[in-house]
Write a structure and sequence with these properties.
The chain is mainly β. It contains six helices and 57 strands. The N terminus and C terminus are likely disordered.
């Protein structure tokens, strides 16, 4: 069966053709050790193939523990040990391709390893000690890999120092280069003024975008430092004159925006009604589709609460040189752009390059979604892809080919929002060049988990372009599967089933079991569903063996044998059973048959037990007690439905085939018990339609205990065995088509015979109301009245 989420995929907008990529809406969640994990995506162990420059593995780095490397195609199967060296402790890490040692294709990882210390694991020096360098670092340092020279020249490390204080002459933007010689090269650096930048809460950082003409033409990065209500740009004014840092030609810093604490009035450029806040990222995009890149920024509370304003997505028009952005005002509110709806609370934003075209990714905290936005010049509009953020706060976005599909995948570091039980994870939205598996619960699944009982479960899954495997995982969603089931390629959904063994549902209550079902294709792309199942520790199962429904007990003439069977927690340890109920009070002691998890009681019900059984509503109860723990179940209760309709013969006839209005006739009922013992308090009821009692009934063969309903109901003191009991009831026609039927019930309201319709003594006359066998409208009314009477008697 196709689930709703799969249907919704077809309705989602995709990125324009110029971007060359689109992503699956549902991200893959790759487990992350903690919220402090740093996510690095580079080809650490997978060599890039020709035409696949963005192929990557995933390195999850965290201070104090070994790094976890998740290889290309196998994100859920970490390698035994990471080949990337790391210090014993560090405060930040970043990865890229530095220019040292001839510009090799192996990624390098740089760590902030101590006060003023940068340590680097060079990719082509695997197994060798980290290279250590001294440089000025802030207390909470950050490092960024940036490309300031065209390829094949490698990247440099950029870092801020002393920024965020908002003071003139304080703060620097550094770029570090590690040379191209063999061994450990000497480090060179370059710095630019980064003073007068205010930052309130977040650590100072340098990020990259491509907003200058030079950067867009050469495929290199401009730099920016986000502040409080501001973005400070460091854009290329000219192409680099050579391959050294000294050859980089950045223009003068351009500060766009600012804060009152810096001596400026932000409300001269902020749109009306928007409060100043942290800039959580910036990007370049041709928002107005005029051929000129504009500045887009996210202005939001870094730690939102119920009292903080919603974030806003703003844009600043670039009318010429990058420096013109500083004077562009007022800023414009991009949050309300019709092409981006719904967009409620934008937060972290990062610049991307999709197929060489500018784009950006932004988290919308309010709708738990991610938007990737591009400009469609041919259509004169913005286009947005929207994906699920899986209930997590996202710290960054990057593009990396982690699964081997034709284009890079979107990757983000996801951490749980405050006061939630969400786990940290790296979210990967696979490129749709690979038709990934789709999976959903089949109808009726996962169902209710009951203690000790097997639980059949099923999913509906497909993968249009290749075979896949369905893994059934109990407990840790990233642990070893309990079972795997192959799935065939095809466009149609097919059900795949499995049985969760009852032996896994035996923990002390309250027990909750986590069930994850994952479909994974040959590229390691997976889709999954999960359920948190509360295991019910309910009453035992209890039934009459062979009865349908479970509580029906037939009482035929001559007596019978009945077996009641109960079971509890069959997948767990032995239990003891305790039987009870009124059934056992009305019958001789049963024969017991008890096993570890199943119990039976067989009763020999002679005819002499019938009167006591039929006088009430007999039932049985059963309680299970686990031998090892003493855990006691709630009681199971079974109210027996006695089927005694074969115990009494009945004949019912009318003394005349037709009555004129007001004329009196007689209804004659003969009853004969098939039992060898008397049945006390038998109720004989005439149900009349178009007729009314015309006097007291006359009874022969049994004593009358009482009458009711004007004589239409007779209560016999006892129905004797083997004796005809005749009830004659005078009736008067009410001038309508008449009919009558009769029933006999025990004192407990149990039916002793099927209702018998009146049959005329003689040939039927057309239009006669007394001998039509209860047929027609009035006959139906009579049957309905009998049913209502039966329900009333059972309730009393």
């Amino acid at each position: 069966m196709r689930r709703a989420a799969a249907i919704a995929l077809a309705a989602l907008a995709v990125l324009p053709g110029a971007a060359g990529a689109q992503f699956r809406v549902r991200p893959m969640a790759v487990p992350s050790p903690s919220s402090g994990t740093i996510v690095l995506a580079q080809p650490f162990v997978t060599a890039p193939a020709q035409g696949e420059p963005d192929v990557a593995d995933l390195l999850l780095a965290r201070s104090g523990v070994p790094g976890s490397l998740r290889p290309h195609h196998g994100l859920l199967a970490p390698v035994a040990s990471s080949p990337v060296a790391q210090p014993a402790s560090f405060r930040c890490a970043a990865a890229g391709l530095l220019a040292q040692n001839g510009g090799d294709a192996l990624p390098d990882v740089a760590y902030c390893a101590g006060l003023g210390t940068i340590e680097i694991a060079f990719g082509n020096r695997s197994g060798q000690p980290l290279a250590s360098y001294l440089h000025v670092l802030d207390i909470n340092p950050t490092l960024t890999f940036a490309r300031l020279h065209p390829a094949p020249r490698g990247q440099v490390i950029a870092l801020p120092f002393g920024t965020g204080g908002g003071e003139a002459g304080i703060g620097w933007l550094y770029a570090l280069d590690f040379g191209a010689g063999a061994g450990v090269p000497p480090m060179t650096d370059r710095s630019w003024d980064a003073g007068e930048i205010s930052r309130r809460v977040l650590a100072d950082e340098v990020l990259t975008m491509r907003i200058s003409d030079v950067a867009g033409t050469l495929g290199i990065d401009d730099l920016y430092i986000p502040g409080f209500g501001s973005v400070t740009l460091y854009a290329h004014a000219q192409p680099p004159a050579g391959s050294a840092l000294a050859d980089v030609r950045l223009g003068a810093k351009v500060k766009v925006g600012g804060a009152a604490g810096e001596g400026v009035d932000p409300f001269t450029w902020l749109p009306p009604g928007i409060d100043n806040a942290e800039v959580l990222g910036a990007a370049a995009l041709d928002v107005d589709v005029d051929g000129d890149l504009d500045l887009v920024l996210s202005l939001a509370a870094s730690f939102p609460s119920a009292t903080t304003p919603l974030g806003r997505l703003l844009w600043v028009e670039r009318t010429g040189d990058v420096a013109s952005l500083a004077a562009s005002r007022p800023w414009r509110d991009l949050t309300v752009h019709p092409d981006l709806q719904p967009l409620v609370d934008p937060a972290v934003l990062r610049a991307l390059q999709l197929g060489g075209a500018p784009a950006f990714a932004v988290l919308d905290r309010a709708t738990d979604t991610v938007l990737v936005v591009t400009a469609d010049a041919s259509g004169g509009r913005l286009r947005a892809w929207r994906g699920n953020a899986a209930g997590r706060e996202l710290r960054d976005f990057q593009l990396a080919d982690l699964v081997g599909s034709p284009a890079p995948d979107l990757v983000a570091n996801g951490v749980p929002p405050p006061l939630t039980e969400t786990t940290p994870a790296v979210l990967v939205w696979p490129d749709l060049g690979d038709a990934s598996p789709e999976i959903g619960w089949a109808a009726g699944s996962p169902g209710e988990a009951r203690r000790g009982e097997d639980l059949p479960v099923a999913v509906s899954a497909r993968d249009p372009d290749g075979p896949f495997a369905v893994d059934w995982i109990v407990g840790d969603p990233h642990g070893a599967p309990a079972a795997s089931t192959p799935g065939a390629a095809g466009a149609a959904f097919a059900d795949v089933s499995w049985v969760l063994g009852g032996d896994l549902l035996c923990a002390a209550p309250p027990q909750t079991i986590e069930l994850t079902v994952r479909a994974t294709d040959a590229l390691g792309v997976f889709d999954e569903v999960a359920a948190s199942l509360r295991v019910a520790s309910g009453p035992p199962a209890l039934a009459v063996v062979g009865a349908v429904p479970a509580g029906r007990l037939a009482l035929p003439p001559g007596g019978t044998t009945a077996t009641l069977e109960g079971s509890a927690w069959t997948g767990c340890g032995p239990v003891a059973f305790t039987w009870g109920g009124s059934l056992f009070d009305a019958a001789p002691p049963p024969t017991a048959d008890d096993g570890p998890n199943v119990t039976r009681r067989t009763l020999d019900l002679a005819e002499t037990t019938y009167p006591a059984l039929l006088a009430g509503t007999p039932g049985a109860t059963l309680v299970a007690t686990e031998a090892a723990s003493g855990l006691e179940s709630p009681p199971a209760a079974l109210a027996l439905e006695l089927d005694a309709r074969g115990l009494v013969e009945v004949e019912h006839a009318a003394g005349a085939v037709a009555l004129e209005p007001g004329e009196v006739g007689v209804l004659r009922t003969r009853l004969r018990s098939r039992l060898g013992v008397p049945l006390p308090d038998v109720h004989v009821v005439d149900v009349l339609a178009g007729l009314a009692p015309a006097g007291a009934p006359r009874v022969s063969g049994a004593a009358v205990a009482a009458t009711a309903s004007g004589g239409a109901e007779v209560v016999l003191d006892a129905l004797p065995p083997g004796v005809d009991v005749v009830v004659e009831l005078p009736v008067r026609s009410l001038g309508e088509r008449g009919s009558s039927s009769v029933e006999a019930r025990s004192s407990g309201g149990h039916l002793l015979t099927d209702p018998a319709a009146a049959a005329a003594e003689g040939a039927p006359v057309p239009g006669c109301g007394c001998g039509g066998g209860g047929a027609g409208l009035l006959g139906l009314l009579a049957a309905g009245a009998l049913a209502a009477l039966a329900r009333r008697r059972r309730a009393t």
